[in-house]
Design goal:
about 325 residues, eight-stranded mixed sheet, alpha/beta, 11 helices, two-stranded antiparallel sheet, about 35% helix, single chain
Length: about 325
């Protein structure tokens, strides 16, 4: 693969899109989508749908700019290689609708992905999407793929958790479950964002990236929904691996405290499609794209998303 230095590439302009889903009483819930199309002159390689996690909207995670850190935007990196890249703010996050008095749980997030994917498929003319989800976004993406396998070409689950067994992060989080269950939103600030990078293994991300990430997150939200935290602390397992029939990669950071290796291996073993991979990412904790080893993550994901379909299946 020919690598093109980010400094030598023209900037890739993004475009905002809007779609909606029906609320409980039929009222439209507006959802914000962000697109960065394939760079000019590249061969189209597929359409990627990035799915964000519990504590931040989509653009800070997938289209971050950090001075002096090339390719901090995973959307730009993939667009430069011919991929049409999309992300979406779930209900209750970022620019999407925040009007309903609900905690925006994981099944609600899967409904967002159903609406967002329908819009993207119609807009692009694609038949299936390359779907990447991180943390609770991986749970949303997995549940979406379970319900709509016909829309998913390949599925990447990063910082994923299945049953929660052996998770130190969730064990700590459960101590505050009564608080999370009592309200629909929880406050976030810069200190909270910084704690994401110190709770598992300090040193996996540099200060400039952490600060830029925090700036981008708090510019959009000073609180986020509690639903994913409640679900991950009290309702796991939410997805059934035996019903996820699409090609799948499970990506686990070496020091990620969300899911124990044993929990993920048991999930992986039950995936029925033989086109599947399990990778441990050295030097990574959580928030993979903001780590010092982020280019390793890009490489793993690009390899899986660009893998040829098997000619022989037996």
């Amino acid at each position: 693969m020919n690598e093109v230095a980010s400094a030598a590439r023209p900037a890739i302009s993004g475009k905002e899109h809007w779609t909606s889903k029906g609320g409980k009483n039929g009222e439209p819930i507006r959802l914000f989508l962000w697109q960065k199309p394939p760079a000019a002159g590249t061969r189209k390689r597929g359409t990627v749908f990035f799915v964000h996690g519990s504590s931040m909207a989509s653009q800070p995670t997938f289209d971050l700019s950090v001075p002096g850190r090339p390719d901090s935007s995973v959307m730009d990196w993939f667009a430069a290689r011919g991929f049409d890249t999309w992300c979406m703010d779930h209900e209750g996050y970022g620019r999407s609708d925040k009007s309903r008095p609900i905690n925006c749980d994981i099944p609600n997030g899967a409904e967002d992905l159903a609406a967002g994917s329908e819009y993207i498929l119609k807009k692009t003319g694609e038949s299936r999407l390359l779907v990447y989800g991180i943390s609770s976004g991986a749970l949303r993406a997995a549940l979406f793929a379970q319900k709509h396998p016909e829309r998913v070409a390949r599925l990447a689950l990063d910082a994923f958790v299945w049953t929660g067994e052996g998770s130190p992060t969730l064990a700590e989080r459960k101590k505050k479950l009564p608080e999370f269950s009592s309200k629909n939103r929880r406050p976030i600030d810069r200190a909270f964002v910084q704690s994401i990078f110190s709770r598992d293994h300090p040193g996996t991300a540099d200060d400039a990236t952490i600060n830029a990430f925090a700036d981008a997150i708090v510019a959009l939200d000073d609180s986020v929904p509690t639903g994913t935290y409640v679900d991950m602390c009290s309702k796991l397992p939410i997805v059934d691996p035996e019903k996820i029939t699409v090609p799948t990669i499970v990506m686990r950071g070496q020091w990620d405290g969300i899911a124990a290796i044993e929990d993920l291996v048991e999930f992986f073993k039950r995936l029925p499609n033989p086109d599947k991979q399990f990778t441990v990412m050295a030097g990574i904790s959580h928030a993979s794209f903001q780590q010092k080893n982020y280019l390793t993550v890009y490489h793993i994901l690009h390899s899986f998303f660009s893998q040829p379909e098997p000619l022989y299946r037996g």
